[in-house]
Design brief:
Rossmann fold
Amino acid sequence: MNDQFKMNAKDLSVYYGDNHALKNVSLDMRENSVTALIGPSGCGKTTFLRCLNRMNDIILDVQVKGKVKLDGEDIYSPDADIVDIRRRVGMVFQKPNPFPKSIFENVAYGLKISGMGNKNEIRDRVEKSLKDAALWDEVKDRLNESAINMSGGQQQRLCIARALAVYPEVILMDEPASALDPISTAKIENLIQELKKKYTIIIVTHNMQQAARVSDYTAFFYMGDLIEYDETKVIFTNPHKKQTEDYITGRFG
């Protein structure tokens, strides 16, 4: 496993108005590995995830304190380029959210708005991204069809391809399989294992078995606090905190 840290959160706190949603969380996320964020609903997992590419910026009355570093540089510093941060740190949401455009245009979208004009380059990048998202063989003959007509599992892999097209370094996933059937879920999980060879992945999941299957490291959140963080096998077989053990074994949550 890789000991290089790709992202670091230090004393990270988030307030939504008067609600202290995340409390002084410090967490180092390793390069080319999968870090799972687990914990009951409303514990701060998604809030933490959204801090990693400044998605919380778009929420009214939110206040973020502390530091988040990407390759050692604070993404919350005044001179940080938010557009570049969101290119380098891609996001895949809980529900597939393809644009009402063709399959091809969905993947090409980020390339075009970033100024890429070479049609051959765009075409090559779209093909590569669809291959990396394990979708190319299923859609290569219908790239001009609407993405809305795809199955839910295909739509989610399309959203992953869309994130990959702009060559991110980190991929954030917010319960990417929660709306999918078991077969589509297995495809997403297999894809995550492939993607971590090239990318750093941070995934929020409610599914304990999924966290155990796909992640190398697991962070357990509760009521805005980071309770425990360790290698996944330690968290699931020999956690150090009783609270973690109670959650893993289903005593609460």
